[in-house]
Amino acid sequence: MTQTMPTTPSTQEQKKDNDSVVTEIFISAPRERVFKALVDREQALKWGDGPAFKLTEWEMDARVGGKWSFVSKPRGPGKENAREIGHHGEVLKLEPPRLLEYTWYAEWHSNQLQETVVRWDLSVVPGGTQVKVTHSGLAQMPAERKGYAGGWPGLLAAIKQAVESGK
After folding, report:
1. Which fold has domain 10-165?
2. What is the pLDDT of residues 6-56, one digit of tens each?
3. Sheet of 99-106: strands edge to edge?
4. How far apart are CA 35 and CA 78, in angstroms?
């Protein structure tokens, strides 16, 4: 019996305290290549730049205790004067090529001091890699949780496209 992996992202908000958003996607590429796309500046600047946001800066010191940050600017009609939005955090766990976890703070959060955590789990599956991203610490941030539930699927789709196309 063959198991087929979803090729489009699926997201569900976990019911336990409404704390997390989980998004998964299958990427037809080796786990090492997918992991590199998550931590490599040049690759991130490509997959992070999409129709809704322009990625203007991206940096990651890919080691436990290392800092990461990126700046994005909304794009589209009526957004010409929108301000840039900063995001930053610290790497908590790094086990290449299967695990990356970091704190996540964003200027657009209602409470900019509220720590949230993003965890990437990469599993080898037939034909490629199953990617699972869990964004937790959102129980006290319902608007942000809703935003991430809508945003992570598009980001994972962009990573999938970039990794599979080699761009």
Report:
1. Alpha-D-Glucose-1,6-Bisphosphate; Chain A, domain 4 (3.30.530)
2. 556 665 655 567 899 999 999 999 999 999 999 999 999 999 888 888 888
3. 10-13, 21-27, 128-136, 116-125, 99-106, 85-95, 67-74, 53-60
4. 35
